[in-house]
Amino acid sequence: MVDVLSIKQQFPIFEAHPGLVYLDNAATTQRPKCVIDAITKFYTSENANIHRGVYSLSAQATEAYESTRQDVATFVGSKKPQTIAFTKGTTESINIIANSFVEKELQADENIVITLMEHHANFIPWQMLCKRKSAELRIVPLDQNGDIDLGKLITSIDDKTKIVALNHISNTLGTINPIAEIVGWAHKKDVPVMIDAAQSAALHNLEVESNGIDFLAFSGHKIFGPFGVGVLYVDEKFIPKVDPYTFGGGMIEAVTTAETSFLSYPHNLDAGTSNISGVIGLSKAIDFINELQKSKLIDHLAALTDYCRERLGEIEGLQILGNPKKHFGILSFTVDEIHPHDVSSFLNHDSIAVRAGMHCTQPLLESMEIPATVRVSFSIYNSKTDVDRLIVSLKDLKKFWK
Amino acid sequence: MNRDDLKKIYNQAILSHNKNPSHFEKKTNCSRSFKAYNPMCGDRYQICLIENEERHHFQGFFHGFGCALSKASASILMEHIKDKTKEEIIEICEKFLIAFNEKDNMLLPSTELNILVQIKEHKARLDCVQLAWRAMLEALKK
């Protein structure tokens, strides 16, 4: 059994709001005290800029920053710290690969393959790129359960495909996509694969090397770390191909009045001062996760999601979107006659935080002809009690709305 | 605002307008037609104004999808602009939006508006109430 209570006690937000039922973890998780303390400690007693000073504080800050690359590499299953770049988040990581790698390779008669369930962050960069280069964006549809149509995905990948980009876990449906299998199909045709791991990185093993993932992105704030810091993993063979995308101090090899040469990836992405405290916080978040019993927590959250699905079935007129074969931690639903925003407002008054809206997956919802949904998403501090509170509140709302 | 206050406001004005919105019709003979759309949440209405050319009075209609608050608010707006001139509609919209954005309470000319304006205490729902009013004002001021 997982001791949810002792995990919850490590998150100060629940002390500040004792009755809070936080079910919006797909938007952002809460932060444990150790992460908050690490950031405070950095600013209080370790603060200095990195890579620039020869004094002790700067050297220590540089070491803390650079050693996090190794921690993150190990965390994602890479042996090499030079495969890891720090970014602002998943969105920036994906934009870098679209604009600083794929763009120069993509020709007008070529294509990019994505799926209909992508978050806008893994949709719009590819759509914009294809428009700029007059290339084709192939959007693989889903079946009625919310699983990717694998047959269509496989036939979409051909010798004109420049990249396949998809999420590991859908932020709207909770679908777990068979990424290793998809990477296998893409690699048969020598096509690289980019994985948006925003929803999976907290607990699921990413194993970039053994899964053959070429590019991977996730955000710190969805794995108990700070806002404004994220990760990009680039497989070693693509490292020479990732160009700088913004220019400034810190990323150069030599500058003359005539021209500039740049450091190689990942340092060529570090124009300007880095989010040092963010990286320090991310490092602590990874330490925190490494102490968790991940597989037990995955089982706990899978059971909790199933329990929630079952109990939501008690509410008349409530429909859950999709029923994917493998799913994790996220359920989106509609309630007949009651708009998701009204549902969310009434739940809020019972101290239950859920998300209402389109969840940055407008193409997916439009394909299902649903304008908006309520989404509940679980994390390591959630328990059956939270689900029970949700159900009581929803039942009360249904009664009131009649 | 607590849950009971919210329930009270919904009971007094929102639920009935949400269930049976006024002037909730798709029209084709519009003098002016424009969108009220919030991309953050997906609420989307098409608003249609039909002008009586002799008297320069308008009738407003809307259709589309949105939460109970945005729909009820649009419905109340349509009732209040019935047979009003462009200038009168602009004044009605401006007055309501000022009252809605002022800290102090201002008395508005109908019971329903005075109920609707109370939603300003509910910070997460400010856009819902203002959606149609802002779109109307922007369209008429163009």
List keywords for this structure.
A: alpha/beta; 14 helices; globular; B: 142 residues; alpha+beta; 3-stranded antiparallel β-sheet; 3 strands
Question: What's the gist of this structure?
Answer:
The complex is a heterodimer of chains A (402) and B (142). Chain A is α/β, with parallel strands linked by helices and 402 residues long.
List the helices and strands and how they pair.
The complex is a heterodimer of chains A (402) and B (142).
Chain A: H1 4-8, H2 13-16, E1 21-22, H3 33-46, H4 56-76, E2 84-87, H5 90-105, E3 111-115, H6 124-133, E4 136-140, H7 150-156, E5 161-167, H8 179-188, E6 193-196, H9 208-211, E7 215-219, E8 230-234, E9 252-255, E10 260-262, H10 276-290, H11 294-312, E11 318-320, E12 330-335, H12 340-348, E13 352-353, E14 355-357, H13 362-367, E15 373-377, H14 384-401
Parallel strand pairs in A: 1-13, 3-4, 3-5, 5-6, 6-7
Antiparallel strand pairs in A: 2-8, 7-8, 9-10, 11-12, 12-15, 14-15
Chain B: H1 3-19, E1 32-38, E2 43-52, E3 57-65, H2 68-80, H3 86-101, H4 111-116, H5 126-141
Antiparallel strand pairs in B: 1-2, 2-3
Helix pairs in contact in B: 1-2, 2-5, 3-5
